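To fix ideas, we reproduce below one chain and its tokenised fold.
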Amino acid sequence: MRLASVSDYRELARRRLPKMFFEYIDGGSYAEVTLGRNVADLEAIALRQRVMRDMTEIDMSVEVFGQTLKMPVGLAPVGMAGMYGRRGEVQAARAAAEAGVPFCLSTVGVCSVEEVAASGTAPWFQLYMLKDRGYMRDLLVRAKAAGCPVLVFTVDLPLPGARYRDVRSGFTGATQLSGAINTAWQGATHPGWLWDVWLHGRPHTLGSVAGAIPQGRSVTDFLSWIAKNFDRSVTWADLDFVREVWDGPIVVKGVLDPDDARDAVRAGAQGIVVSNHGGRQLDGVRSSISALPRVVDAVGGDLEVFMDGGVRSGLDVLKALSLGAKACFVGRPWAYALGAGGEQMVSKMLGTLRSELATAMVLTGCNEARNADKLLLDVAL
């Protein structure tokens, strides 16, 4: 299969992965209305084509927290990526480093923060808050010791949204025995995945928080563990707890409302990610791209504003930059690529995004990604 776009990586991942793991990557919550909006609202924005401009040189780089990114893209935190490719988080981190963009490691990744950092480049670290604050303090110390330069504090998952696809595929809601049988059967019918991930990608634990999870719990049962152990009492005051250990930049991920963005500024955050968790939490809310301009207008001069949700091409990246994002984080695109064929495919996917962004910049007359603005758009939400 020749791979031309993110949709092609998705199709190859669908063929290669057991259904339960593909549906976990691909699905959203409830009726998946917001999942659809994320993509459709980006598609509805029209770029403004410009001609007869000297576009011999273009510059896709942006500077974020003292780090120069070769393009305004980062790999968003994706849970359990080590189930899509052998030690998947390590493979994705290497591909990101080669492309000159950040990789953000999920708290619930299969590979631990130490393992990913040992691969050559310390990742940004994404934090979920557990009820056990002693464990959280230790985890922050570990991330700092591993050299992680930025902390991404995800705040829109006090409990998991209802994801119907995961129930239907057997990923969640099954007994431990039936879940094990289902995983074994689906793995046996996907021999490439079985060899690469199931047999040679062990251990299948949530590496960074493995010490907080009871022994014997299946990695596919982690959502029920999250529901019991993620802390619903978290408020903006808890950034003070984080600051007791973490002295680097803090980016708050999961902001859609301008008032919440202002609260993030007051709480001392250095950045926010405008995000609805990829349509995987509260269904029926705004798309990320439609929320972005209001958030930028409210706080854009006070901290760095990023966006994720629905980005499937370099054209989407330019649209988000034009509406005020400093950079975009992509989750599903790199998870699809990892599932399609590991590090090599993640690198190819990033190359696809880079090529698409370059083309969009040339044809809109945008010489510098860092200076993209609304003048590049014909229609904005």
User: Anything to note?
Assistant: The chain is about 45% helix and 10% strand. The longest helix spans residues 343-364. The longest strand covers residues 250-255. The CA atoms of residues 59 and 368 lie 5 Å apart.
